[in-house]
Amino acid sequence: MPATRLAAVLLATSLPFSMAVAQDPGIHGLWWTKGKKGRVEIADCAPPSKGICGKIVWISQPNDAKGQPQTDKNNRNASLRSRPIIDLQLFEGWRENGPKKWRGSIYDPDDGKNYNVGISLAGDKLVITGCIEWGCESETWTRYREP
After folding, report:
1. What is the pTM of this model?
2. Residue 32 domain boundaries
3. 20 to 30 A Cα–Cα from 6, which one of 21, 51, 69, 126?
4. In this prediction, what percent of the chain has a pLDDT beyond 90?
């Protein structure tokens, strides 16, 4: 078999595998939050941080009642309340905790608090579970797909 034909056969048989690998982004990518109120981009943290990071890239109501961009108005730290919600870092440093599982904390701009959470990935669903004194709650995010 000529070398060029062999190379073509090898390339053709390897394409489905490489395309399948490229199609599974894991936890990385864009995610709808509960109720599709927002989209969060999840990516590797930029150095010097380590782990997985996530920031808000879109919200359903980008402006407040006065027509101004939404800010982190519920933050416990008064000096951070003027931060825009868009591009707000919700979490950084999530660490892998098993196959398709992570642990870390997440900031909730609705109440201005941080929560320790467990994260698990099941296909196009990301389940975030946090426990506090009176019990545990879960929230499911779904992978954003271009329309």
Report:
1. 0.81
2. 27-143
3. 21
4. 76
